[in-house]
Design a protein that fits this description.
By secondary structure, the chain is an alpha/beta fold. It contains eight helices and 15 strands. It has two domains: 3-152, Rossmann fold (3-Layer(aba) Sandwich); 164-263, LytTr DNA-binding domain (OB fold (Dihydrolipoamide Acetyltransferase, E2P)), CATH 2.40.50.1020. 33% of the residues lie in helices and 31% in strands. A hairpin with a 5-residue loop joins β13 and β14 (243-247). α2 packs parallel to α3 (64-74), α3 (64-74) packs antiparallel against α7 and α4 (92-101) runs antiparallel to α7 (138-152). It is globular.
Length: 267
């Protein structure tokens, strides 16, 4: 069966070994690119649109999971989303998360027998996608698997939640009540904090901030955006299905990625 694949692995010897084994087990599989970090995986996958992604779960910059997250948000509408196989060291927590999400994985160092099983599963999945009734729901299935995996691997939300954020402005520290925050937006190594009156840059990553927020009150709507739920005035879905949020007391509008569109359903 002819198919295309991309390998994202930061260890060149392991990437080369995986490529050799795939060539032996599945000669018709064309490896369209081999990259060494998550950002390159996203860029090349969007450019080349491979049918399969082999993503190392731990890479510099974006991890394999973060790269899959980014691709799910940026993948062109109407294009079938790639089948994803995560490549990981033996981490029981990660393996249980993959199993719960029904996502395929292979362990390092790659076992030929286990990789053969993965190739067989991928070929079956690609054949099923050629059937219209199954192929039409392929993106929904991929999003559901990724949502499940994100939940299973999310940092622990236990512990005290922020009630006040100390935002430095020059020599001053502004004490911003969490109730006044409309939304947070990732900005490189900082997070942009927006209230009805002004905005601040705080020196923390969104990944570090999330466990400190009450996720019943603050909803992630994009990999780089978290909004206070009761600050949302409306959620408007356009003809293409894209959702845009308007806020109470603020002119900014926020886009919702399709990975989080399920949060907005009329009662």
């Amino acid at each position: 069966m002819n198919a295309t694949a991309l390998i994202a692995e930061d260890e060149p010897l392991l990437a080369a070994h995986l490529k050799v084994e795939l060539a032996r087990l599945w000669p018709e599989l064309s490896i369209v690119a081999t990259v060494g970090h998550g950002e390159a995986a996203v860029q090349k996958a969007l450019e080349l649109r491979p049918q399969i992604l082999f993503l190392d779960i731990r890479m510099p910059g974006l991890s394999g999971l973060e790269a899959a997250h980014a691709l799910a948000e940026d993948w062109p509408e109407g294009e079938p989303f790639p089948l994803v196989v995560f490549v990981t060291a033996h981490d029981q927590y990660a393996l249980e998360a993959f199993d719960r999400a029904a996502v395929d994985y292979v362990l390092k160092p790659v076992s030929p027998d286990r990789l053969a099983q993965t190739c067989s599963r991928l070929q079956t999945a690609l054949q099923q996608r050629q059937q219209p009734q199954i192929g039409d729901g392929a993106m929904d299935t991929a999003l559901a698997q990724l949502r499940s995996l994100l939940v299973a691997t999310a940092p622990s939300m236990q512990g005290p939640k922020l009630s006040v954020i100390q935002a430095g402005v020059g020599a001053a520290i502004h004490m911003v009540k969490i109730d006044d925050v409309l939304y947070f937006e990732a900005a490189d190594k900082y997070v942009r904090l927006v209230t009805t009156e002004r905005e601040h840059l705080i020196r923390i990553s969104l990944r570090e901030l999330l466990p400190q927020l009450d996720m019943q009150r603050f909803w992630q709507i994009h990999r780089g955006t978290v909004v206070r739920a009761d600050a949302i005035a409306t959620a408007v879905r356009d003809e293409a299905g894209k959702i845009t949020l308007t806020l109470r007391g603020h002119a900014d509008k926020l886009g919702v990625s399709r990975l989080y569109a399920h949060l907005f359903k009329a009662m």
